[in-house]
Structures
1.
Amino acid sequence: MSEVLIQNETFVNLLNEVGIPSYTPSANAQALLQVEAKYIKDLKINVSNVLNNSQNLNRKEALLLALSVAVNERFDLLKQSFTELATAAGATEAEIAEVIACTSLMNTNNVFYRFRHFMHKDFYNNQPAGIKMSIMMSPVLGKEFFELLSLVVSSINGCEMCVTSHEQSVLQHNSSESRVFEAVKLGAVIKGLITILS
């Protein structure tokens, strides 16, 4: 399999782009590499575009959002590489830690608020959530980016209530729909990448 990996220059470039040159192909990656699938080129272009060619996200922001997806999907290989790349782009240890904490909090909230949304019962909706969320009050990442990060993770986890709430909050913090669009697209592309690499 390593010969196929070396022969597929596009895939090697993709791995270098995300900082994992010593990757051992998963079954999904092997299936694509064995037939020189055209999708590898699409994936490389999509990943490169969201990490490097955003009009509304800087490099550090793009990498921190990518990190949140890797944390959310429990894919340690990309978690490590995106941590290193984000650090090289200027992210602090406190910012990295907050991305991890925010992703954990959104996993909590996404399950809880999806349940409320699905049930449509006054009893559940009227009970205090009782979930401690002090991290949201004065985030190291800044309120707008913390909300954007929350929106991306909530989009991946499919919580309509959280997506709607965080999108409104992002816009209230002087952001733009274009920035929201690019951030969610980045989350979608990195999730797709993880589908192949894991």
2.
Amino acid sequence: MVEIVNKVALSSLKTFNLEEYYPDGERKFIDIKDWLFEGIILKEKDFRETLKNHDWSQYQDAYVALHCSSDAIVPGWAYLLITSYLQGFSKKVAFGDLEFLNSLLYQEALQDVDFTEYQDKPVIIKGCSNKPVPENAYLLALQKLQPLAKSIMYGEACSAVPLYKRPKK
């Protein structure tokens, strides 16, 4: 009987899995058009009253993205006022959609990663994920890894796409 050898497991190939750095916590999206008159006009008195009566506890320990999906012209203070109500409930508030929020969270998470274990190693940035890893997180990971890694690929060990190979000196 021929022994099957897992060459990937024996190689010096290091896998960088962004899913491991996914910040746990619920994501919530607030579309403020729902708080505007006819979805497009901010009437300050009504807006403030709506915010005052809103149940902010539903955002407890959540990451919140604020956005307006209509073509309304929303003054900057409106987002600040919403954020002031979210203070004490949410973990973080960002202006944009959920993908932007996740990009921001990954940017913060990757700042604290010690990438030295990838020094002079072939690295594969794992492509498949069960969590919503935004494209921007892959770009950030590549930028952190490239100055260190011997080579970088994307995907899975069985079907990786080469991205970078350090030039020989």
3.
Amino acid sequence: MSDVTVRRITPAELAEASRIVGLAFALNPSNLAIAGGNQDKAARIMEHAALTLKLGNSASHVLVAEREGELAGVLKAAEWPHCQMTVGEKIKSIPSQVRTMGLGLPRALKVVGGRAKHEPRKPHWHIGPIAVHPGQQGYGIGSALLAAFLADVDRQKVPAFLQADVDRNVVLYERFGFRVVSQEAILGINTSFMWRDAQ
């Protein structure tokens, strides 16, 4: 991880960081379920969501990782109670979500609603998405992003929460002190909800 640099995102990097999120999540099982199995559509949906709802949100804390001078990874987090969109934000986002998701919107709403039920109702940092460009995977970039962010969280002595629908990610997060506190099959995809106590 010595050749990986982690820092706060700059406004000029928002579009490229969102593109990385889209590429990284193109094969994610929940996104593929939303997109009806279409990988290109899954990437477009996630890129749009990252740009308009996640990375660009004023409540978001976003880190990026650089490797060999290239943007290689992104981590977004939000502090409770700003983890979930407000009713007003949801209403405002509907037109652009309809354009991007089309017939996948009802499935997306089911995923969002299913996950929101597991959101802890107490102070914490909600982490996600964590995305690494497919061409940069295997270099410890996700671990570098997570370690950097959790160092800040630990200085604040605040717990952290995230969700995972890929088993290898669950294993990675457990190495950082997260534990599975609940699970639910959403659109037939097993999703683990994970908590890390304040350190």
